[in-house]
Design brief:
By secondary structure, the protein is mostly helical. About 60% of the residues lie in helices and about 5% in strands. A hairpin with a 2-residue loop joins strand 2 and strand 3.
């Protein structure tokens, strides 16, 4: 059963990363309101593909909550009914949670796929919760962690509803990203507990431990700054500025985000060197070095080539991967720190 739990936890991590990528594509393409209602999409389980599907039609069956667009406003059916030969406003109620009433098929399906991946991510977590019940006597933490993960997925879904109802409320990217990273951290702890008996001997020093904690905190701050930069770009896009003018009008937080990366680079290089020199055994730091190099390269591309679309999701994804790798190394350190302490030479 533990093998199944380990596989499910890894699958869930992959799905969370897919959710992060999908969410980034949604923001990159401006598709956040592609589905103006939640959890349905224009009142449909499977969204429309063309504007004509959202027009009122005579002698047509409409389901309760199904949405149409009338006079540039959204209206939903009060009940299931079949229309007559003329439009009867008594059968419809205006959608008042927001006034966004634009249909763009591309935006709608990008947002729908994002929601679909989010929904699929709940399945492995739910199975993990059920299987953890059978191991409760052996280790109650399995159940607690899987329950916490499922709760956070529910919180993310609820937050998604608020974001849509509020027509992309400010700060939503940052909160969503923090929630996704919290789920990743929970899953990494879960997986590390399952592998505790098979983990090889690891070493650590107090300095390495403390600096690793500082580095993780700085990475979280950097990710938060990055999401704020993303929101400032959304504002420029909504204001109608051409892409070539974004960098000259961008919020000063971008320059804080860019300069902060130099501090992170220096600290991460020092930790990578310490892990290698003292042979502490944290394989994660080899991949952290590679991921950080790619992250900086994409950051340069974004800064000097007018924020190209293709680079934005990869930049966010690499930030999440860096967080996951460093969190995994720290979790292993705290779970196995008592095994072997190497003094600083």
């Amino acid at each position: 059963m533990k093998k199944w739990l380990a596989r499910l936890s890894r699958l869930e991590i992959v799905l969370i990363f897919l959710v992060i990528i999908a969410g980034s594509v949604v923001r990159m393409t401006g598709s956040g309101m592609g589905c103006p209602d939640w959890p349905m999409c224009f009142g449909h389980l499977i969204p429309p593909t063309e504007r004509a599907q959202l027009d009122w039609k005579p002698n047509t069956e409409f389901n309760k909550k199904q949405i149409i667009i009338v006079d540039e406003a959204l209206f939903f059916a009060k009940e299931d009914f079949i229309t007559g030969s003329n439009y009867n406003p008594e059968n419809w109620e205006k959608y008042t949670k927001h006034d966004y009433a634009i249909f763009n098929a591309t935006h709608t399906w990008i947002e729908y796929i994002n929601r679909l991946i989010g929904a699929l991510s709940g399945i492995p977590m739910l199975i993990m919760l059920v299987l953890s019940l059978f191991l409760f006597k052996e280790n109650w933490r399995y159940l607690a962690l899987s329950a916490a993960g499922l709760f956070m997925l529910g919180f993310e879904a609820w937050l998604g509803k608020l974001v849509v109802d509020g027509n992309l409320i400010p700060g939503s990217i940052t909160i969503h990203m923090i929630g996704a990273l919290a789920i990743v951290a929970i899953l990494l702890v879960f997986n590390a507990l399952l592998e505790r008996d098979s983990t090889p001997t690891l070493g650590h020093t107090k300095k390495f431990q403390n600096l690793s904690l500082v580095a993780l905190a700085l990475m979280l701050v950097q990710i938060g700054l990055g999401t704020q930069v993303r929101e400032s770009i959304d504002g420029l896009q909504q204001a109608g500025l051409a892409r070539t003018d974004w960098m000259t009008n961008i919020d000063p937080i971008f320059y804080v985000h860019r300069s902060f990366s130099l501090l992170i680079l220096a600290l991460y290089f020092y930790l990578w060197q310490m892990n290698r020199k003292l042979k502490l055994g944290y394989w994660q730091w080899r991949y952290i070095a590679v991921a950080l190099g790619l992250e900086l390269l994409i950051g340069i591309i974004l800064a000097y080539f007018n924020l190209p679309h293709f680079a934005q999701p990869f930049h966010l994804l690499l930030g999440a991967i860096l967080f996951a790798l460093q969190s995994h190394a720290l979790i292993k350190l705290f779970l196995h720190g008592e095994r072997k302490v190497i003094p600083i030479q």
